[in-house]
Design goal:
two-stranded antiparallel ribbon; globular; 19% strand
């Protein structure tokens, strides 16, 4: 069981904290890899339900999670790549520059990935900019790990609330897989 802070507010000169409980899977098959335990896609209906739940509720990490979800759906970045992602100019072109989390000597990809800013729609760029601005504030406060865990745990809690009997749920990693599935909307990589 994991306690999730849902909201924090003042009431009659007292600080009130509303907590939720996220339950893990009852039984885990350790013979399967972790990627085998993940949901592999997200439908439009699931996304709409997720977005509605986040918007309609006053969760502590709700704003951050919604920004993360929207930005991840248009970029396909891995959760841990967001910590250092930024818009930059390389060779005279505006790009989204990302430290490649999966880079190592055995893989063919380089230490960074770059996506042309022009390959995103204006709405997509707005989602990315909003998430990066929020992330910058979080990093400046020195609580990025709390932000990541808060969003991850809140997403787990919301999954349990919306789909209590489902074993494979939406997580921050699946948002990357959804973008990869829709090739026509994939941003253009330049490195």
């Amino acid at each position: 069981l994991t306690l999730i802070p849902l909201s924090l507010y003042w009431n009659n000169n007292k600080v009130k904290l509303k907590l939720g409980v996220a339950k893990g899977k009852k039984k885990v098959d350790l013979s399967r890899s972790t990627s085998g335990l993940r949901k592999k896609n997200i439908t439009d209906e699931e996304y709409q339900a997720l977005e509605k739940e986040i918007v309609d509720s006053n969760y502590l990490w709700g704003d951050g999670l919604l920004l993360w979800v929207r930005a991840s759906l248009v970029t396909g970045l891995r959760p841990n790549e967001w910590e250092t992602a930024k818009f930059d100019v390389i060779d005279g072109r505006d790009v989204l520059l990302v430290n490649n989390f999966k880079h190592n000597e055995e893989r063919t990809h380089g230490p960074t990935r770059s996506f042309l800013r022009s390959s995103f729609s204006e709405e997509d760029v707005t989602h990315i900019d909003e998430h990066l601005a929020f992330r910058d504030k979080i990093v400046e406060m020195g609580v990025y790990d709390n932000y990541y865990r808060g969003c991850r745990d809140l997403l787990r809690y919301i999954n349990g609330k919306l789909w209590p009997k489902r074993l494979k749920n939406i997580n921050l990693q699946i948002l990357k897989k959804l973008v990869l599935k829709v090739q026509s909307n994939q941003p253009k990589r330049i490195s």
